[in-house]
């Protein structure tokens, strides 16, 4: 068997004496760039989901505190929340849009049959996509209420 024979060291010494120039610049392909951007967007989407949940909780607490414990003083809410209405609605819409795209990114929307199967089997990614989309639609439907609060 030739694998275990002694190697010819003269060829090895000749290759060591010659300078080896290696190209240290890595070549990026379009695929590498797309995968890197996609990984970055997934991280941004995950952070947006966390910030959205914290912001929604903060918004609920602020409305509850400003209305009083029995929700009996809505005029105080309108006076205090007036300056926060537009920025809160805009931030909520931005976070919901990024979170919705991030949730739909986890689904294969190209094949309708597998998409329907995923929704019927109540896959967590499909449920998250549905609830984020529903929250986005509800947020858009509350825009006129936010306008009225801002003009109070």
* Rg from Cα: 29 Å
Strand content: under 5%
- The rounded distance between the terminal residues' Cα atoms is 92 Å
**Strands, total number:** 0
Global structural class: mainly alpha
Could you spell the SSE succession in H and E letters? HHHHHHH
| Poorly predicted segments | none
What is the residue-averaged pLDDT? 81
What gross morphology would you assign?
elongated
Largest sheet: none
Count up the helices. 7
Features:
73% helix, 7 helices, single chain, 152 residues, mainly alpha, 0% strand
Task: Please write out the topology.
Layout: H1 9-17, H2 30-67, H3 74-81, H4 85-105, H5 112-120, H6 124-141, H7 143-150
Helix pairs in contact: 2-4, 4-6
Task: Explain what the structure shows.
The termini are far apart. α4 (85-105) packs antiparallel against α6. The protein has 7 helices and no strands. The protein is 73% helix and 0% strand. The mean pLDDT is 81. It is elongated. The chain has helices spanning 9-17, 30-67, 74-81, 85-105, 112-120, 124-141, 143-150. It has 152 residues and is an all-alpha fold.
Nutshell version of this structure?
By secondary structure, this protein is mainly alpha-helical.
């Amino acid at each position: 068997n030739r694998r275990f024979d002694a190697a010819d060291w003269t060829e090895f010494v000749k290759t060591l004496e010659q300078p080896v120039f290696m190209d240290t610049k890595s070549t990026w392909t379009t695929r590498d760039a797309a995968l890197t951007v996609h990984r970055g967007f997934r991280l941004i989407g995950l952070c947006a989901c966390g910030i959205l949940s914290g912001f929604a909780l903060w918004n609920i607490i602020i409305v509850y505190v400003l209305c009083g414990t029995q929700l009996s003083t809505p005029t105080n809410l309108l006076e205090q929340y007036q300056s926060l209405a537009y920025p809160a609605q805009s931030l909520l819409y931005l976070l919901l849009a990024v979170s919705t795209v991030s949730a739909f990114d986890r689904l294969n929307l190209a094949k309708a049959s597998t998409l329907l199967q995923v929704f019927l089997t109540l896959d967590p990614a499909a449920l998250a996509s549905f609830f984020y989309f529903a929250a986005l639609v509800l947020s858009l439907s509350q825009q006129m209420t936010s306008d009225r609060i801002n003009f109070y």
